[in-house]
Amino acid sequence: MKIVVIGLGYVGLPLARLFATKYSVVGYDINVNRVRALNEGRDDTLEIEKEALSNVLSKVNPFESNRNGLYCTTEINEIENGEIYVVTVPTPVDKNNRPDLTPLWKASETVGKVLKKGNIVIYESTVYPGVTEEECVPVLERISGLKFNNDFFAGYSPERINPGDKTHTVENIKKITSGSTQEIGIVVDNLYKSVITAGTHMAPNIKVAEAAKVIENSQRDINIAFVNELSKIFNLMNISTQDVLAAAGTKWNFLPFKPGLVGGHCIGVDPYYLAQKAQEFGYHPEIILSGRRINDSMGEYIANEFVRLLIKNEILVKNCRVLILGITFKEDCPDVRNTKVVDILKCLSTFGVDLTIFDPWADPKEVKREYNIDSENSINKIDANYDGIILAVAHADFHNLDFGTLLKENGVLYDVKGLLNNNNLVSGML
After folding, report:
1. Cβ neighbour number for residue 105 with a 10 Å cutoff
2. Residue 226 and residue 246: Cα distance in Å, rounded?
3. Which residues contact 240 (CB under 8 A, 6 or more apart)?
4. Closest by alpha carbon to 305, among 248, 235, 242?
5. Which of 96, 286, 287, 357 is spaced 20 to 30 A from 269 at the CA atom?
6. Phi and psi at residue 251, in whole multiples of 5°?
7. How many other C-beta atoms are found inside a 10 Å radius of the C-beta of residue 76?
8. Helix intervals (H) in 115-250
9. Close Cβ partners of 377 (under 8 Å, ≥ 6 residues apart)
């Protein structure tokens, strides 16, 4: 079986590597630097270890030799002999939080150019119900000239990648599968079942699979919004939210969510896809959008609470030196896309604060390109005696920092994620 994976990011690469242990796989991406690095055995997302990647890499297109392996390319002519095409491109929102299907449309155009009779196109990108068959398939038909469910077929198997998680890797997470016909559903299910150790769940149709994925992250977003709101309430009452959650967590069915920033390319984005589709049907999703408003407001809330603590400690806010620890969207992961730490920075900048950003996981060039913000990834470039520190991301590396040296005697240490729960230097936390 000849498989082409379109998009070699956080979702596509782990999947392509896994398929390559049993099949001939060609990975396609438009990012020349990304493909070059992968062919050199280097994954800059740090999702795949060098040895695991090297074990499946092929210097020649495995389609030509019918051997297992992964070959990465930016050339469309090298994917034209595929039998199954798996699309793993991102699905972002625009500045108004409306779904942006541009990457999906462009990926579908690429596949349409090489699509042949009998091929199956499987989408893994998170979307609202109906996108695969109503948005992507028409593009495939228009570009290829082939007829859906007669000449070619489609499937949907939503990604369940958790960046930075080395335990819940792609093969260890149960996979939802579906097909555009019952027979194709079985083919798609058997394909994933052959490499997914955790097994599969075949949905009755593509729309059910699409809906299942988009509510996974919406549910998590709402639960985090609830504890974020609790943290605001308990802060007004001068009660520790962490202590309350620890006590409530002793009940067997209490859900262990914690307050914090909700960014990234999944939880902070996917609910808008479901909300958009609901509104097209004339329904206004109050809980979903309310949760989004709460979570999107947390960066500004943290910044204002931090400034309040500076004033309380009689520290002049304007031009005070503040160290921000972490700028990625989650801990122990280099991904800076849609990080909500940026909201903290924007708010603090309005107060005239002198900011230094340190994150050992983030590439300063990537941070500069995404947000036009300067950052450091070496502790040797960080000074001491800051007026304030915001521990924004709970990287394991930050456990070993000497906060007593970094902070002035009356300085403010705000711990967003409660990483330093027993540290008496902590001035505030969510």
Report:
1. 15
2. 16
3. 234
4. 235
5. 357
6. -80, 135
7. 13
8. 131, 137-144, 182-193, 206-236, 241-248
9. 358, 359, 360, 361, 362, 363, 364
Helix, strand, or coil (residue 163): coil
Supply φ then ψ for residue 156, to 5 degrees.
Answer: -140, 125
Is the CB of residue 294 less than 8 Å from the CB of residue 228?
yes
Amino acid (1-letter code) at residue 244: V
SS (H, E, C) 318-340: CCCEEEEECCCCCCCCCCCCCCC
Residue 294 CA to its chain's centroid (Å)? 19
In degrees and rounded to multiples of 5, residue 357 shows phi and psi of -110, 125
List per-residue pLDDT tens for the chain, 430 residues long: 899 999 999 999 999 999 999 999 999 999 999 999 999 999 999 999 999 999 999 999 999 988 999 999 999 999 999 999 999 999 999 989 999 999 999 999 999 999 999 999 999 999 999 999 999 999 999 999 999 999 999 999 999 988 888 888 999 999 999 999 999 999 999 999 999 999 999 999 999 999 999 999 999 999 999 999 999 999 999 999 999 999 999 999 999 999 999 998 889 899 999 999 999 999 999 999 999 999 999 999 999 999 999 999 999 999 999 999 999 999 999 999 999 999 999 999 999 999 999 999 999 999 999 999 999 999 988 988 999 999 999 999 999 899 999 999 999 999 999 898 778 899 999 9
Do residues 155 and 120 touch, judged by C-beta distance below 8 A? yes
Q: Which residues are catalytic?
A: 266
Task: Judge residue 281's burial from the number of C-beta atoms within 10 Å of its C-beta, 0-12 exposed, 13-18 middle, 19 or more buried.
Answer: exposed
Residues 6+ apart with CB under 8 A from 197: 171, 172
Strand 175-177 with 200-202, pairing: parallel
- How is 19-71 classified by DSSP, letter by letter? HHTTSEEEEE-S-HHHHHHHHTT--TTSSS-HHHHHTTB-SS-TTTTT-SEEE
CA atoms within 13 A on the CB side of 73: 17
Pairing mode of beta strands 407-415, 426-429: parallel
According to DSSP, the β-strands at 200-202 and 354-358 are unpaired
Query: CA-CA distance, 172 to 200, in Å (whole number)?
Result: 11
From the list 317, 325, 327, the residue with the least C-alpha distance to 387 is: 317
